[in-house]
Specification:
The complex is a heterodimer of chains A (256) and B (328). With 256 residues, chain A is α/β, with parallel strands linked by helices. Chain A contains six helices and 16 strands. The longest helix of chain A has 17 residues. In chain B, strand 2, helix 2 and strand 3 form a beta-alpha-beta unit. In chain B, helix 3 crosses helix 4. Classes of the chains: A alpha/beta (256), B alpha/beta (328). The structure holds flavin-adenine dinucleotide (FAD) and adenosine monophosphate.
Amino acid sequence: MADVLVCVKRAPDTSGEVVLTADGGSIDGRYAGYSMSSHEECAVEIAVSVAGDTGGSVTVLTLGDDDSVEQLRAALAVGADEAVRIDATADDYGPADVAAAIAEVVQARAGEGRPFDLVLVGNDAADTGDHQVGIRLAHLLDRPVVAGAQEVAVSGDRLEVRSSVSGPTEVFDVPMPAVLTVWEGGVEPRYPNISGRMKAKKARIEVLEPSGAPRGSGRLGLRVLPPPESNVEVLGEGKTAAPRLVDVLRELGVVR
Amino acid sequence: MSVLVLVEPEDLDDLGAGLSVVSQEVLTFARSLPGDEVDAVLVGAVGQPTEAVLAHCREQGVRTLHVSPDARLERYAARAWARVVDAAAEAGGAAYLIGGGTPHGNEVLAHVAAARSVPMPCNVVAVVQSEPLEVERQVVGGAVLERVALGDGAGLAVASVAGHAVAPQAAPSPGPAHVAEVDVELTDADLAAQVVRIEAREGGDTSALTGANVVVGAGRGVGGPDQFDDVEALAARLGGAVGVSRVVTSLGWRPHHEQVGQTGSRIAPDLYLACGISGAIQHWAGCSSSKTIIAINTDGEAPMVTKARYAVIGDMHEVIPAVLEELS
Ligand SMILES: Cc1cc2nc3c(=O)[nH]c(=O)nc-3n(C[C@H](O)[C@H](O)[C@H](O)COP(=O)(O)OP(=O)(O)OC[C@H]3O[C@@H](n4cnc5c(N)ncnc54)[C@H](O)[C@@H]3O)c2cc1C
Ligand SMILES: Nc1ncnc2c1ncn2[C@@H]1O[C@H](COP(=O)(O)O)[C@@H](O)[C@H]1O
């Protein structure tokens, strides 16, 4: 039985244009919307399937303001059992602060005799992309960590973890309790069904107060890169452009 | 005061290939930091470094190349590798520790930063100011740059450098690249998360994509999972690889290891031929370092088209077959 904690972050969805807030201090997602990153969606999927396979439970956690409940409910809708929100402004927290806050929750749960066997985070958050919360968390908890996990199989109290993000597939065999940082691509996140959505809507969300003040991310400023001036040369339309395109390929020296 | 660079080989199984391009870039970047000397550390390559690795180090002006003789480090184990890197930083008196913003690079550096309780800005692209030292790093997949301080003069300043942020350039004068062995006492905990085996992946892995000189990209505009024949034929004809957008992988049309972008691979081929790809920020994050980009798109206003060097406006399934015919 594996009890799993999965951590998700509400981040501005930036598939379109990125807009900064008036003070230039953060990214404004009001027009584009917010979501958790695709790595985290896969982490939730892995959490739900590991808990399902082993008869365990899934708790989803976020550190964020009241709006981030939306991301907790998204995880509850696909099978998380419990949700915890650490009430804070995520922008005030650097990755070391986030790791410390998560570690505190993990330790408190262990103290209550309900320890997490597995903690899942995304490999990197969609907005700040610090690539480190999971590793710092593992150090704080003194647990093994595998980064870039894509597929996870539980056997007894061990995990077989696969990662193909560096080229050939690396296979790890780690004892639980462990931390994994998940990279998308190994599992297909499930969609919520109606009853999942209903359950998520009604679920109680535990709210915790952060215990100390964060040290912060060290952000001094943000700058949106201006779109490079277009210097595109249109070679033509449709198949009539093929000869021109082939000329360019030859000029570039890529035709063998 | 020195800068220590965590370097990675181009191919762990073939050290004759020397250092990865990203590592050569990071060695070049290291010279923009306020250090007098650049040292390097190579982990996982047990035994003496190859001539190809040493040649790259000398070319990049490296003073000392730290290696570890411990055979237990041959298979990847981030925390154990970090112990070696940490010890090399100690031995060389490093003020800065940097490495490539690759999966292994970010992971190993994060272990060092966590063990030392120091910050680690990730995917740094440039030094913006030297006193106090401030750098810019990529956030939101590279669309936004964040300015942060690097180091406070107290502890080791750790950072990863985004792939292809700078082009590799030989140092003004070659370095001696003395080889020094670092020995650390590894604990079981250091080795608890270690690769136990490598599996070949059916249908290939990311190395085909990241190493290719030509990548033919395909996005939602392809139309369906059975519409890749012309894309594959063109990639084969140009001796390149197929790369795809996330829409294509999430629809299950192609495997994830072919994905280019923020949550896929970063590529830097001579030519990226992007077909039916809109060019969203997260895709651009993975392909913007391509030397030349050609877009084929029905929409002349698509960001991929306006950002490309050349474009053909039209249906990729008309254009590609015509190109193949022209090439035959
Ligand atoms: C956190 C996060 C991470 C992400 N990571 C990645 C990533 O790693 N990689 C990635 O690619 N995306 C990523 N995305 C998704 C990204 O935002 C876009 O949704 C995606 O890149 C769009 O894929 P596309 O260009 O194939 O599809 P669309 O945006 O739908 O574009 C299709 C294009 O094809 C053109 N077209 C249609 N038919 C034809 C035809 N017959 N011939 C020629 N052209 C045609 C259209 O004009 C259009 O420009 C990420 C998003 C988020 C939020
Ligand atoms: N505010 C947060 N609340 C919950 N989880 C977070 C938060 N910030 C980061 N994480 C988790 O840590 C992962 C890595 O984040 P980072 O190291 O900041 O790139 C994310 O994918 C999340 O799973």
